[in-house]
Write a structure and sequence with these properties.
This protein is α+β, with helices and mostly antiparallel strands. The protein has seven helices and 14 strands. Among the domains are: about 110 residues, no CATH class; about 80 residues, no CATH class. The longest helix is centred in the C-terminal third of the chain and has 14 residues.
């Protein structure tokens, strides 16, 4: 069992008809416009061939009008709570003022790696930071245009003393489950002779084991006898915060905007 959501578009004309309907509330008062729109959206959705699950509405929120360009990019309000219904009036194009500008934005230093790699998650986090400068309901395209150069790599020996240890490895795949053998194969040994003796004893005691080999490996021995395979780490130092340049397009709805349609998003339980 789980949940998802769907969106139904309702024309302005149909919304006007729905608004005029007299639908009594459970307590005798008239139903709100948004609740009637949600009922209409669910009724339209239920006629679809893929509507085999149950629409669930635990709360309803009517939002301010937004531009289509903003709605197409998704608004975080869709996500929580799972069974909240959201009604979005979509403003007509001539009721929207679109502006593009480049701004300086301070972001956590760890985002640099993500942004330099061109991964989408970085842009998503940047959109969240931009809501401190712009209303979320106006944010359209967001593009990173300038990034500081990455720091030069720094090589550093890991903590501890480099020592040679030995391990036993199977030459062929192990097809039998032998707990004692697994323990021995996962261990490291301080001398080659010790590892060789254990390997011979293993093959003597367990005929199902394949041939074994003894390998040497250099590790770092840290305080308390802990071993680390990493001898050296090569990293790029990252400052706590960095400043980047972001091109931001906003779509601001004018007062008394003309509404082109309504989009109703609601949860589905399956």
């Amino acid at each position: 069992m789980g949940s998802t959501s769907t969106t139904v578009a309702i024309s302005t004309e149909r919304a006007g008809e729905v608004r005029a309907q007299r639908v009594p509330h459970a307590w005798g008062s008239a139903a709100s416009f948004e609740s009637k729109l949600v009922d209409e959206a669910i009724a339209q959705w239920s006629t679809r061939k893929d509507a085999y699950d149950d629409a669930v509405v635990e709360s309803i929120e009517l939002h301010s009008a937004v531009a289509e360009a903003v709605r197409e990019r998704g608004i975080d309000w869709d996500a929580e709570p799972a069974y909240a219904a959201h009604v979005f009036p979509i403003a007509s194009a001539d009721s929207v003022v679109t502006q593009t500008q480049t701004v300086k934005l301070t972001v956590p230093g760890h985002l640099l790696t993500t942004l330099h790699a061109g991964e989408g998650y970085g842009t998503y986090e940047i959109r969240g930071l931009l809501t401190e400068m712009f209303p979320a309901s106006t944010l359209g395209d967001v593009t990173v245009v300038t990034l500081p150069k990455r720091s030069k790599p720094v090589a550093k020996a890991t903590e501890g003393k480099a020592v040679t240890r030995y391990r036993i490895v199977p030459i062929d795949p192990i097809r039998a489950h032998i707990p004692a053998a697994q323990y021995a194969l996962n261990a490291t040994y301080s001398s080659q002779s010790e590892a060789r003796t254990v390997a011979v004893d293993l093959l003597t005691a367990h005929p199902a084991l394949p041939n074994l080999a003894v390998e040497a490996v250099i590790v770092r021995e840290r305080e308390g006898g802990k071993l680390s395979k990493a001898l050296v780490t090569v990293t790029r130092p990252v400052p706590e915060d960095v400043q980047i340049g972001v091109k931001v397009t906003t779509h601001t709805v004018k007062p008394n905007a003309t509404i082109e349609r309504y989009e109703v998003t609601f949860g589905i339980h399956y």
